[in-house]
Please model this.
Amino acid sequence: MTARTVRTATAMATAAVVLASAAACSAPDDGGGPGGGTDALTVGVAQEPETLSPLLGYGKEGNSKIFDGLLTHDAQMHLKPALATHLPKVSKDGRTYTYDLRKGVTFSDGKPFTAKDVVYTYETILDKKTNNASKSELDAVDSVHAEGEHTVVFRLKYPYAAFAERTVLPIASKAVASKTNVNTGSYNTEPVGTGPYVLTSWRKGEKLSFKANPHYWGGKPKIKRFTVAVIEDDDVRATRLRSGDLDGAILPPNLAKTYEKDEDKRTFSAKTADYRAVTLPSDNPVTGDKAIRRALDLAVDRKAMVKSILNGAGKPAYGPLPTDSPWFAKGTERPHDLKAAEKILNDAGWKPGKDGVRRKDGERAAFTLWYFSGDKLRQDHALAYASDAKKAGIDVQVQAGSREVIRPKVKHDAMLLGNGFPADPDFDLYPTLHSSQAGNGWNNLAYYHDKTVDEQLDAARRSRDPETRKTAYTKVQRALAKNPGYTFLTTIDHVYVIDDKWRGLTTQVEPHDHGIGAGPWWNVQDWQPEK
Amino acid sequence: MTETDIPAAARPPRQRPARRALWGPAARLVGRRLLAAVPVLAAVTFGVFAVAAASPFDPVQQYAGSAGLNASQETLDQLRANLNVDGPFPQRWWNWLTSAVTGDFGDSTSLRQPVAQVITERLGWSVLLCAVGFAFAVLVGTVLGLAAARRRGGLLDRTVTSLSYTLEAAPPFWLGLLGIWLFALQFDVLPAGGLTDSGSDVVTASALLRHLALPALVLGISQVPWFLLYVRQGVGDALAEDAVRGARARGLSERTVLLGHALRSGLLPVLTLIGSRIPELITGALLVETVFSWPGIASATVEAATATDFPLLAALTTLATVAVLAGNLLSDLGYGLADPRVAMEEM
Model:
């Protein structure tokens, strides 16, 4: 054995390994590829789901593609049956919800869907060992049990009017998921559901691919292949849409504008419940002061924010509920009125100091406003807010930080908040305004406490009569206008651009978190090609 | 193999009898290095856990993502208990280490998968990218380095040398963005990222080649300069050696002199340096994979770091450490094989 032989052998081995690995990576051609057809859709989104398992929170607001809920929302956000045959029967005390299930539905692996799957899904989510960060949304559930193969009964801890809205939550397959580790097992990446689409591949950080479920109980979708490309950067997404690599994409309003004149593309401006607001903590002597709160509420120029920050894609917000929501209390809109704001402050004894900042009893009208670093939209809102506040003689210092930095400070400092759940007013109002939620996780960060608001929020969740609820929520919004513990700034539209090849496209009222389930492709299974 | 098998022209310059005992010392060297790797790996992973403990980021918040901003405190506390992120870090490091020894690397919190699965899914793509990029660098570096050394101070030499210094200073991510701008946006000949086109699922050989071209080219180009400069230096020096002068005096063809004599002896020290370039290759891949959304190990490392996914980060750091140690070992072995004056027993 010589040095030369070893060298030759090593070189040969290396070459062999390289060739073999190149060969191993190639796979047979299926003739796929993006085409101009109407039976395949490729869209670009900014956020990737962390998991595809409903047990860990995927698709909890519906439109999960792979799964169905017991109920679902139509384009107007009205509930309609999905895996249930009709809307639930609710007992007189409002604590028992009974769902009759659709018969003959199968999961994509061919196994039948039964009440056992529903019970398994809800019980697993509520299990302490399951790492589902959204499980508190099901706090009301006391127990869930099956009555035979096709009936499920939910028993609630307290009467909860909005409960049916929670049951759009996707149902997992017990047979498949229960054999895996819920938190890290294969069900997170290889889901099996009853939905209109079946996942064919998920390359994390790149894209998710779906194919139509031929046995879908709602009829086989016309769009046979659905691909969701994950592209974080807005400019790259716009470029790939222009190059034809994508058929549709979510874009910031300024980039969407460049497609307005394109005849082959349509722009959708989806209405949302996605609001931005500033928390005004009760414990801070400045932000807790009612005069300061009301003055800030009048001093901010919401219309200017919509125009300059959102490029017009949005509207002023006066509370968690968007002004076009049927639950919005008409008449609680506040004008931009700097003079009135100054008068309120003067009357309350906040007098301008030498540096232009008002003072009362030695207290300077100043506070810090935090936003999450890297969030450009919140940064823009925070800066605009500070500039408007300054005109009224209130000094707002804007600072960026991570969640870990901000969370310990929110009891004393203001924070730029973003949120919004359109399905029921309770989902936004209760966690944000009820005093029992003050400082609970990231809920009620203003530590807002108002007796009327608490009472009416409780009344509205107990009653299932729409009129009673509407009256209660109107009272909540009026009380909030009198003591605005948050300055609500804007409700943001989500803008989508898509090839004009399909008929009857719509958008729903979208939540703050808008992933695969949002956008015109919320109901891609129902799309029809343009004739 | 005996000396008579080799055509006289290709015979290397005679130094001393080539027959040496190789396997014994080499095996002992590998064994020594394996033993030395144990404390190194322990120290590196301990460092990762220490950094994790000192990190201001909260793994629970990172895990919960956007849902965490609506979660109740009870849910967040429950998550903290389930994810097992509390407790003194030496204790957590020891728990991790003892299960890692049995092959259980824990679960990735950001990808919701076992760490072992993340690595097996992605390692192949990274190895492919690095192998192609490195092969490109070695090939281009040798050819250009040889050509430059042949006419030192000539036009080609001055061009490639100054180009190499410029490239050496250019970071790979910048080259990557430049490549995307040029080939994907301006000329529209190569895709800007990913493994396949957005609308296509299956990894076909042709699509893979098209998608591999740009990242491998960028990674390769970022590795070319050092190789080129070493080859140029090595071959240049060898051209001035007695052996080469002797070969020329014997009237051998220029091609034989250049490839058979100068390149062979000039390349030997360079070959042994390849192993020590592995850390550079890994950092290069880190940047290139991120820019091109290549689904490899390196992009998972970036994700793990930004999402404070410490179980995944610890395993990937271990993997990188192993790669670097193996690279060093390979270059030492190569050195021992190539240069008879070096005794492996002394390494």
Observations:
- Chain B touches chain A through 67 residues (CB under 8 Å).
- The first strand of chain B starts at residue 107 and ends at 108.
